[in-house]
Amino acid sequence: MKVAGGLLILFLGSAFLAARPGPQDKNTQPQCIAVATSFSLRAGGSFRQPIGDFVFQVEPLESTGWLFSVQDAKGHDVLYPVNPPLRLNASQTLGAGYGSKAKQSLSYSRELLFLLKESDYATLWPYVEHALWPYNAPDPNHAAEEYFSELDKLSTGLLSLAVIRSDVSENDEVRSAEFKAQFTVAAWFHFNPSLAPYVVTCPASTLPIGQRLPARIPRADPAKYMSVRDAALWKNPFLTITRDGFDVRFQGGRVFGPLSVLARTLVGLPDSAWPYGRVIAGAENGVRAAGDADDAAIKRNREEADKILRELGLVIDWWPSA
User: Fold this and answer.
1) What is the DSSP string of 150-197?
2) What is the pTM of this model?
3) What average pLDDT does range 216-225 have in this prediction?
4) Cys-Cys link to 212, which of 204, 219, 261, 271 (CB 3.0-4.6 A)?
5) What is the CATH number of the domain that holds 100?
6) How many domains does the chain have?
7) 85 & 173 share domain
8) How far apart are CA 58 and CA 137, in angstroms?
9) Domain residues for 188?
């Protein structure tokens, strides 16, 4: 899989890389709180549940089914800006639409992030607009990168919406459905006490990007890798710094692209890619053009990559160039 700078705009029609929970350091497991509510709806019905300063709303579609949102006091949907694709996204639709039948739409559950503060919405929204309409952005060529960069700085909540039961006619008209919604948020978030919040471990996807690997992957264990000096035997990700960015190989795959997507790429790798814990081996590309141009570019990229890796909580084992 190649990730190139110009391809970033494809996020408008693609999803995030998913990372599943895994082993964690006992001292790096942030604690969140969660509440859950169950509800049933008949065709044309609606549901409304306050959750702190926000409101969870499920409203009927003009056709058949429902559309759900989490809205702040100003009526902003705090789900939409943090769940790409930003165009043609059917994740908040519980019914026919976007090329899917109602029966299909109600056959699976959803997990969506949401913003936790009105101020975060105000901060992020200009970047959403720039990503959607880059020709209006100050830097059109990097509008998508800037959107993801801002999004990665934020703590978010997680809405898990399970479809318990649905009744859809042969004509694909929704008659009724039963749902369970769970909201997981940072411990400082204030739920209504009547919702009976309980303590849970924060899902890694809700944390700022620099905290996601420490929340999933244990610390580096030198005993597992100090004797390895052959790249073919190295089991954790191996990073090569190039003049254009990076090339990372891991068990089961390879990704290369600009440094602007390095952090998101590494965080998106599965837990199985990190058997040694939070350590990555790296080296500069030894194949270079004549002259100093490649040398200078690779040096700059190594310095920038070193900073990114440390911000992700990774130990870096730099190897000599091949």
Assistant:
1) HHHT--EEEEEEEEEEEEE-TTS-EEEEEEEEEEEEETT----GGG--
2) 0.85
3) 96
4) 204
5) 2.60.98
6) 2
7) yes
8) 33
9) 31-116+155-203
Q: Rg of the Cα trace of the chain?
A: 22
Joined tokens for residue 14: 């693609």
Q: What share of the chain has pLDDT > 90, as a percent?
A: 80
Residue 300 has which token pair? 């700059």
**Per-residue confidence band for 1, with pLDDT thresholds at 50, 70 and 90:** very low
Cβ contact 263:209 at 8 Å? yes
Pairwise CA distance, residues 81 & 77, whole Å: 8
CB count, 10 Å around CB of 306?
15
Rounded CA separation 83/157 (Å) = 12
| 20 within domain boundaries | no
Average pLDDT over residues 126-149: 95
Query: Which one, of 148, 156, 155, 113, lies nearest residue 127 by Cα?
Result: 148
How much is the pLDDT for 134? 95
Q: Would you list the DSSP string of 84-144?
A: S-SSS--TTEEESBTTB-HHHHTTS-EEEEEES-HHHHHHHHHHHHHHHSGGGSSSGGGHH
Among 92, 99, 59, CA closest to 78: 92
For the stretch 226-271, pLDDT in tens is 999 898 999 999 999 999 999 999 998 999 999 999 999 999 999 9
Please state, rounded to an integer, the average pLDDT across all residues of the chain: 90
- Contact (Cβ atoms closer than 8 angstroms) between residue 198 and residue 149: no
| SS3 state at 22 | coil
| Residues 184-204 pLDDT 10s | 999 999 998 889 999 999 999
The alpha carbon of residue 316 and the mean position of all alpha carbons in its chain are separated, in whole angstroms, by: 24
Neighbours of 200 (CB within 10 A): 15
